Amino acid sequence: MTGAVVAGAAVAVPLLSLAGRAAASATLVIPEGWRASQIYDAVDKALALPAGSTRSSVGTADLKLPGDAGGNPEGYLFPATYPLEKDATPQSVLRFMVDTANKRFGGAPVAAGAQRDAMNGYQAVTIASIVQAEAVGKADMGKVARVVLNRLQRGMPLQMDSTLNYALNRSTLNTTVSDTRIENPYNSYQRMGLPPSPIDNPGVDAMRAALNPTPGNWLYFVTVKPGDTRFTADYAEHQRNVADFNAAQNSKAQRSPQVSRPPR
C-alpha cells in the first residue's frame, strides 16, 4: 500500500505534540512498518509534488542519522501522524520524522537494552524492523525478537522472509526455494547476521520487543493462519508447522501454484 492517508483514518499511530508549532493545514499518517519507499511516495502525494521528489531530497535534508546508516533513513522515519504546515517541504517532513525517531529510540533505556544483548542502537532498530515485519501483532513481537536473537547468538542465518521481500521490493507470503537463492545482501537465507539496514520503519512496540524479548529457546516460527503463530526450538516440529502453513495456503482458491514456504 502506498499513498498519503488522510487524518482520521483508522490507523493506530500516535499523534505528535504540536506544542510550539503553527497550526497545521493538514496531517500525514505514516503507519508502523512502512518502508522508506512508501513514505517517500506518501510525502510526494501529500505535498502535491512530482513522484520521486522526496526520495531525491534525502541527501539535502540534513538528517541526524547514526553513522552506521550511511545516509539511509530506513528505520528512522518514525511512524506517526505528522502535521503538514503550509510551508512544509520534503526535507522538513523527513527531518521531523528522523528527529522523532531519535527522541523515541535514542534514550538511555534504549542504549542500556541494546548493550545488554551486545548490539548498538542501529542494530536494535534493524531487529525491530524485522520484528515489525514478521509479527502478526503486538502479542507475538517479543517471541519473534527472541527468535532473531537466538539465531544470531547461535551463528544461524536468520532465514526471514521479510528480508527477502525487502530485497525483491514486494510484500508477500509466497516465498519459493528459488527466492532463497538470490544473490542479495538482504537475503538472510544465504547471508549470516543482520541485513545491512532496517527493512522498514518500526514503531515503539517493535522496538520495545527488540530490547526486551520474551524469554525462550525458540529458533523457528511460522504463522499458519491468523491467530495461529507457532514457535518452537525443534526443527522437526517446525517442518510439521510449515507443512500446515502450506496446506492452509493450498486451500485458498486464489493461491498461486508456485507457493511453497521453504522449511528453515
From TrEMBL:
Region feature (Disordered): 244-264
UniProt keyword terms in alphabetical order: Cell membrane, Cell wall biogenesis/degradation, Lyase, Membrane, Signal, Transmembrane, Transmembrane helix
Keyword Cell wall biogenesis/degradation: yes
Pfam families (alphabetical): YceG (PF02618)
Signal peptide extent: 1-24
Compositional bias ranges of the Polar residues kind: 247-264
Keyword Transferase: no
Gene3D superfamilies: Classic Zinc Finger
Coiled coil segments of this chain: none
CDD domains in the record: MltG_like
InterPro entries linked to this entry: MLTG-like (IPR003770)
PANTHER family found in the cross-reference section: ENDOLYTIC MUREIN TRANSGLYCOSYLASE (PTHR30518)
UniProt name for this protein: Endolytic transglycosylase MltG
Top-level taxonomy: Bacteria, Bacillati, Actinomycetota, Actinomycetes, Kitasatosporales
